[in-house]
């Protein structure tokens, strides 16, 4: 049985999540529906919630936040959004508190104490405005797209961050989809949502292979001399190795920023280091993916180069196929 404090805390969250008179919100629209969790995820989420409630009752608010976030990732709910906001409020993190109160309102647009939550959101927006920033949340369909704002990768959707008021260029990129871009005018007084839908990219036509005609009565490639692809395999391999090295560097920087964030006792310092960690994480993932692809292409071309010197004449061509999410190298011919 839950102790009385925990029971009241849970009951308050559940009451706020139930339907009641609707309240208006000008800057926020309903969030996309969360995927239905499995039975196992629901059970594990209950366990994490119970542990989080215990930590909250004991005054260990950072532990409670971690556990509530884990439970919400498994089985999202408006009640958990409210609990997370309250826990962040206890440690004085205004930006995170605002983020999760706004999330609660998206998930529970009809709630009996909506006006109270709305007033608290306005107060927190004013706090950020006094600091010269305002909160921006970016959603995408599908989720998981890399968010680049004013040329700087900041995270993946759904993404929430604090920016200086004014015009910003928001770009979303996701493998297999065309990039989406929108110019956003972030006001100083109120937080804002941006929603973008990504369309599946249509691959461009690859460059055609060269003609296999003859020259002076002899096949054009009857007597190949030297490597078939020249120095390109080595150039591509070197670029891949450099990308992987860069990924390792950013991963180490991410871990350092994460450790620094955990040790920082101030609200502003913790948020700044957390955003730095997210940026390093995104860059490391992009570099690792790019490096892996380059190493695979370079290795393939090098193998073809080495084996071609011991085999009969052949025809091959190197080409590129491009789409909205990037370019891929292709090889055409008979080997």
In total, the number of strands is 11
Tertiary shape: elongated
Question: Mind telling me the C-alpha Rg?
Answer: 27 Å
Low-pLDDT runs: 1-32, 220-224
What's the pLDDT, averaged over the residues? 79
If strands are numbered along the chain, what order do they take across the biggest sheet? 3-2-5-6
Count of helical regions: 8
Instruction: Give, in order, the helices and strands.
Output: HHHHHHEEEEEEEEEHHEE
Biggest pleated sheet: 4 strands, antiparallel
Write the layout of secondary structure elements.
Elements: H1 4-17, H2 39-57, H3 61-74, H4 78-90, H5 94-107, H6 114-130, E1 134-141, E2 146-149, E3 152-156, E4 159-163, E5 166-173, E6 180-186, E7 192-197, E8 214-215, E9 218-219, H7 232-263, H8 267-308, E10 315-323, E11 326-334
Parallel strand pairs: 1-7
Antiparallel strand pairs: 1-4, 2-3, 2-5, 5-6, 8-9, 10-11
Helix pairs in contact: 1-2, 1-4, 2-3, 3-4, 4-5, 5-6, 7-8
Describe this structure in words.
The protein starts with a helix and ends with a strand. It has a four-stranded antiparallel sheet with strand order 3-2-5-6. The protein has a three-stranded mixed sheet with strand order 4-1-7. The chain is α+β, with helices and mostly antiparallel strands. Helices cover 49% and strands 19% of the residues. Helix 5 runs antiparallel to helix 6.
């Amino acid at each position: 049985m839950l102790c009385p404090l925990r029971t009241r805390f849970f009951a308050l969250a559940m009451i706020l999540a139930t339907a009641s008179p609707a309240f208006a919100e000008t800057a926020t629209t309903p969030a996309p529906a969360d995927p239905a969790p499995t039975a196992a995820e629901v059970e594990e989420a209950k366990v994490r919630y119970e542990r989080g409630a215990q930590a909250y009752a004991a005054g260990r608010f950072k532990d409670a936040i971690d556990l509530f976030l884990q439970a919400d990732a498994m089985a999202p709910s408006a009640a958990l959004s409210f609990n997370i906001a309250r826990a962040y409020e206890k440690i004085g993190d205004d930006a995170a508190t605002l983020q999760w109160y706004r999330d609660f309102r998206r998930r529970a647009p009809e709630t009996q104490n909506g006006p109270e939550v709305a007033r608290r959101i306005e107060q927190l927006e004013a706090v950020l405005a006094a600091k010269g920033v305002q909160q921006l949340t970016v959603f995408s369909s599908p989720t998981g797209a890399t968010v680049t704002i004013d040329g700087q990768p900041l995270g993946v959707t759904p993404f929430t961050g604090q920016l200086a008021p004014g015009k910003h260029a928001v770009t979303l990129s996701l493998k297999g989809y065309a990039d989406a871009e929108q110019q956003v005018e972030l006001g100083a007084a109120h937080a804002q949502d941006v929603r973008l839908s990504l369309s599946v990219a249509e691959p461009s036509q690859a460059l055609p292979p060269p003609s296999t005609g003859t020259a002076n009565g002899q096949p054009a490639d009857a007597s190949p001399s030297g490597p078939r692809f020249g120095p390109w395999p080595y150039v591509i391999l070197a670029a891949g190795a450099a990308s992987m090295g860069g990924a390792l560097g950013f991963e180490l920087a991410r871990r350092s920023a994460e450790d620094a964030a955990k040790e920082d006792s101030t609200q502003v310092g913790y948020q700044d280091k957390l955003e730095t960690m997210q940026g390093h994480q995104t860059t490391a993932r992009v570099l690792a993916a790019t490096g892996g692809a380059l190493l695979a292409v370079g290795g393939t071309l090098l193998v073809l180069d080495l084996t071609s010197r011991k085999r009969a004449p052949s025809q091959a061509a190197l080409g590129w196929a491009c789409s909205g999410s990037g370019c891929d190298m292709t090889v055409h011919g008979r080997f």
